[in-house]
Structure formats: structure tokens, C-alpha cells
Amino acid sequence: MSGQIVSNIAHIQEEIARQCQVSSRPPNAVMLLAVSKTVNAQGVLHAASAGQRGFGENYVQEGVEKILDLRELAPDMAAQLQWHLIGPLQSNKTRVVAEHFDWVHTVDRLKIAQRLSEQRPSHLPPLQVLIQVNVDGAASKAGVAPADVLALALAVQALPQLQLRGLMSMPDAQAEPARTQALHQQVHDLLLQINAHPVFAAQPLDVLSMGMSGDMAEAIAAGSTMLRIGTAIFGQRQYAAA
Questions:
Q1: In the predicted model, is pLDDT for residue 1 greater than 70?
Q2: Measured distance CA(113)–CA(159) in Å, rounded
Q3: Is this prediction's pTM over 0.90?
Q4: Which end of the chain offers a freer environment for a tag, N or C, measured as fewer CB atoms within 10 Å?
Q5: How far is the C-alpha of 240 from the C-alpha of 228, rounded, in Å?
Q6: Residue 205 has pLDDT above 60, yes or no
């Protein structure tokens, strides 16, 4: 299993470099985030042995347990890893996230950002946050409407113990490639609009968390700086029986 994970990561990195070349972007412009939901601590260590350092978790409790397990299992390696919450975040889970994660991709309302800011321990670096954009307007999806992104960005930017870094989106996986790329491009353009505001002149937002295994090429072409890849690294997910 370890060898397969290492091989998978190498293959994905090669594909990222290829797609960056197609889009006339430097290969180091796009970070690979390994989505490790349902993957145990040992699987994370296998990926870390291939040089992978960023890991994304969808579920708060599973992610926190994994972070703590790795600190016991391999403290030196655990200290090098970066943990991203990429799933929904409820108000009653903000404290544990603020205490254990390095990034949150799914801020979509000010209340969540305020709680993260208040609950981030002062001895830790600022929590890196992204605003989730509901770019295609699907009623079933979380995220702020594109028209409301700037106002939320300005409010989050003013909070202590947080550093707003950019935007995250998750377009409909069933959309045609051209439609998917257009949606990714819309989020890219939103980032440019935010950075045009004087508040962001000194420190522009620089992260676009866009794209997964099925829309990697479209996301890179539209300017993604962070891809969220799971099964292509770790294989089919093993869910516990109900």
C-alpha cells in the first residue's frame, strides 16, 4: 500500500506539472492537498514519506483524532504536516478546529470566522482561512454567493488571529468541462476583484482552492493554486459499516 501511495503522488505531481505547462504556469504554482478522509494515520505517514505535507479533512472529529494519533505515532513527522479543514464547519465545532487545524477552507459566514478568531490559541500562528464561494448557486451547497464575497472578505480580513488567504469553490462535478472551467474562472475573477480593493493592496489574497481529480485540468487553466485530491492518491475510500 505504501508503495502505491508513493507512486500515485508522483504520478499526480507529474500531471500537475504537465497541466501547468499547458497553461503556461510554473509547476510550483499549484499545491497538491491530499484529501485523507477515512484514511488512517499510517496511510497519512505513507503519503508523508513521498514528501506530501498538506492534508485535507472533511470531518472535524475524524481529523482531530488523526492529528492527535500522528503526534503520538510520529511526533517529528507530525510537526511537519499541515492540516486543512475542507468540509463544512458548524458553530459548535469551531473551538476544536481553531485549536488543531492550520487552515479552514469553508468559511461562508461571519459568525464562523468570528468564533475561529476568538478561539484560536494565542501561542499558535494565525489560522489561515479561505472563503467558500457557492459559484454555481446550487441550493444544496454551502458557500457565500459571489455578490456577497467582497463584504465577507473585508469583515474576515479585520479579525485577529486569522489570516484570510483566498477563496475555495466546488462546482458541480457533473458539469461539462467547459462549464466547469468557466465556473473556476469566475472564482479566479472574484479574487482579482477583491484584490483590487485598497484594503488588500499591501497583502493581496493568493490562494484559490479549486479542482479535484475530475477537473484538475480545468482548475489549473483557470488559476487554481491548490488542488484537493483524495481517491487518486489513497484509492477507493473504506467507509465504516452503518
A1: no
A2: 8
A3: yes
A4: C
A5: 22
A6: yes
Q: 127-133 and 103-107 as β-strands: parallel, antiparallel, unpaired?
A: parallel
Question: What's the CA gap between 94 and 56, in Å, rounded?
Answer: 16
CB atoms within 10 A of CB 126: 15
Q: Quick check: 37 pLDDT over 90? A: yes
Average pLDDT value for residue range 7-31: 95
Q: What are phi and psi of 144, to 5 degrees?
A: -85, 150
Where do the H-state alpha helices sit in the chain? Answer: 2-22, 41-49, 60-73, 75-78, 94-100, 110-119, 149-157, 177-195, 216-221, 231-234
DSSP secondary structure letter of residue 104: E
Residues with Cβ within 8 Å of residue 33, at least 6 apart in sequence: 54, 55, 56, 84, 86, 209, 226, 227, 228, 229
Q: Which of 206, 213, 210 lies closest to 184 in space, CA to CA?
A: 210
The rounded distance, in Å, linking the Cα atoms of 41 and 35 is 13
| pLDDT score for 239 | 54
Angle between helical axes of 60-73 and 41-49 (0-180°, round to 10): 60
What distance in Å separates the CA atoms of residue 18 and residue 216, rounded to the nearest whole number?
11
Instruction: Please state the rounded mean pLDDT for residues 75-91.
Output: 97
> Tens of pLDDT along 123-157?
999 999 999 999 987 777 889 999 999 999 999 99
Hey, what's the cell of 140?
444544496
How many CB atoms lie under 10 A from the CB of residue 189?
Answer: 13
Mean pLDDT of 183-207: 97
